[in-house]
Amino acid sequence: LTDSEFTFSRIHAQLAVDDELLLVEADVGLPETLGQRLRLHARIEGPLWVPNGWDANIYAQVKGLQFSALSKESLLRVAEMKAGHGDMEIWLDWGAEGLKDLRGNFKLNDLAWAHAQGLEDYRLDKTSGRFKFRREFSGWSLDFDRFELERNGFRWPESSISLRLASNESSSRIQLNADYLNLGQITEFLSSRTELKDEQRVWVERLKPSGALKDIKLNALLVNKKLDKLLASGDFSDIGWLPYDKIPGISGLDGRFSFDEHSGDFLLATEGATVDYPWLLKDELSVQTIRGEFDWSRKGERYTLRGRTIKLSNADIRGEGQVELSLGG
After folding, report:
1. DSSP-assigned states of every residue in 103-167
2. What DSSP character marks residue 281?
3. Tens of pLDDT along 248-285?
4. Contacts by residues 150-158 (CB-CB < 8 Å, ≥ 24 positions apart)
5. Which is nearest to 140 in space by CA: 91, 95, 181, 102?
């Protein structure tokens, strides 16, 4: 659990042992560098001398846990967390095949992760919520409830997130349902990670996507690690990005989207957007209203975008029309 040695000044514990039963009750005062207090209750049943021959139910509550004191391999140091502190409460069920169920709640502060490029650490001011991890047939599920997050003074609304993965030798299915995702904060975190390729990191850091996705539903099937089926839908609010590589920047987009692996559509219902196209426009263009229905489709390497009943207006112009654009192929 840790890579260091600690001296504990207060330990109250009770232990009961039978042939196939072990009970542990403990209340431990933690060293200041590790935390404040640990309470533990464990019930382990079965032949303890037989590997994978026993079941365990464990409850643990820790106050003031210091993540920097934990080993880098600890499950609690999510995504190789560098620093942070807070309170956690967990219930764990363990069976012959390993972890079956892990649930609990958390309230954490001042979290930090090292940046892949050696830049300033990625930090979260605070996060809290409840979670539940469960082993399922050929996979697992992870659910967050009453989830909140705060970074640089911006707070996510209380929300729920559900992620499921099922896989076999040749395919994997991923399901995601989320009340709310902040696109800017997610992409900032991804750009700090080593898992992101350098060319992908350049696009993320130059475009700097922003805004929120709401009521997201995603279902993806990968066969031999390649995307085979995809269904996604949701709402978006105040979406935007900076201009880069001849792509115009935009901010303030609101609407709804749905798509699969071949086609999709989205509805724009935006009030108060701006367009930044420095290669064409000297100043940003303010748009009072953008409304319209769009759809796109892919055939081979050719993409087609169609816009129907598009309405656009600002202080100087007002227009209505349609558009069709083809790329590639």
Report:
1. EEEEEEEEEEE--TTS-SPEEEEEEEEEEEEEEETTEEEEEEEEEEEEETTEEPPSEEEEEEEEE
2. -
3. 899 999 999 999 999 999 999 999 999 898 888 888 88
4. 150/124, 150/125, 150/126, 151/123, 151/124, 151/125, 151/185, 152/125, 153/125, 154/182, 154/185, 156/180, 156/182, 156/185
5. 102
192, burial (CB in 10 Å: exposed 0-12, middle 13-18, buried 19+):
buried
Tokens standing for residue 117? 């490029």
Query: What global pTM score does this model have?
Result: 0.86
Nearest to 196 by CA among 123, 122, 108, 246: 122
**Contact call for residues 203 and 244 (beta carbons, < 8 A):** yes
Convert the pLDDT of each residue in 168-186 to its tens digit: 999 999 999 999 999 999 9
- CA neighbor of 121 nearest in space, from 132, 133, 131, 113: 113
329: helix, strand or coil? coil
